[in-house]
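Dear Dr. L.,

I hope this message finds you well. Following up on our conversation about the binding site, I have prepared a predicted three-dimensional model of the protein together with 2-oxoglutaric acid. For your records, I am including the exact sequence and ligand specification that went into the calculation, followed by the structure tokens. Please feel free to forward this to your student if that is useful.
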Amino acid sequence: MELLSDCPVHASVPDKYVLPPEKRPSLLNDEPSSDVAIPVIDLHSADDCRRQLVAAEIIKASKGFGIFQVVNHGVAEDVVQGFREAAAGFFAMPAEDKLPYRSDDLSKHFRVSSSTPYDRNGDRYWLDYLKINCHPVTDEHVREWPDKPGSFRSSLAEYSTAVHELAQTLLRLIAEGLGLDGGFFAGDLSGGSTQMNVNYYPPCPDPSLTLGLLPHCDRHLLTVLSQGDVAGLQARHGGRWLLVRPVPGAFVVNLGHQMEIITNGLLASVEHRAVTNTDAVRLSVVTLIMPKMECRIGPAPEMVNEATGPAKFKEFEFSEFIKAYSAAAASREDVLHYFRIHR
Ligand SMILES: O=C(O)CCC(=O)C(=O)O
Ligand SMILES: [Fe+2]
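The resulting structure of the complex is given below.
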């Protein structure tokens, strides 16, 4: 399949990208009103006396939305920009430089592909994407990362190390906010090989006909996303699609399916999608923190309590979830149905 980033600018949306009417984004600009804006949390001084307050804010946002943004997060601006520029540079290279990395083989540590990783009735989506095993930064991983553009490997190593640290900080704050031991999510629950999606959405001649990325929940524990300054990410809230408004320098944080299951439904994973726009390329850099494949997952005994009720999910090995997620083509209810305890 051809990469969109290798095509000349499209004058209209080719038929193969036109979604059936019921799947098109009916409202492109369902702007949040002030009472339902996705929270922006200042992590500054989460190390001192504000720590408890910040943890409480995170839990409130997680319960209410399953998604929030963080500023003053400690990841240096030049680290973020350095990798965003290298990633944009990769997509801007001539087709022949990208060709060696074209693959749909999931075992690769670096690959580029187009349209969607999930086969939902052959629907096509308006994006190209990189899938990268980005952490830990091992020689085996780095060898498969591209050596062009020249800064790609070093900027990716720097970015993924910094974002990984931020993710651990966030997990610690979530644990503390839930009244769990601060190290609750450390170890196997967050110790799987970290994956990164770099999504590249070219300008689209008619954003009402197609989507950049289909509605889905992330399969992992926690997602840390840099969307730059071009809007497009939307999160499902109260039956509406709320725009996750770009905030300069912020990371978007959203909870994955594993967080929902471990907290017995208290912190629900949020359904989200990406819409396209007519003017600008949009690039999102998405870091997905996940358990080890062999890790046992289920509602934590501490989270099965009066507030959450009896256990809502069965216990399983994380690798089983990954298989079910692919089989359900990332559909939230289809995949959760399989792991729910039906009473
Ligand atoms: O492009 C975005 O903002 C969303 C990306 C996303 O949801 C994903 O890669 O899982
Ligand atoms: Fe996602």
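In brief: The mean pLDDT is 91.

With kind regards,
A. P.
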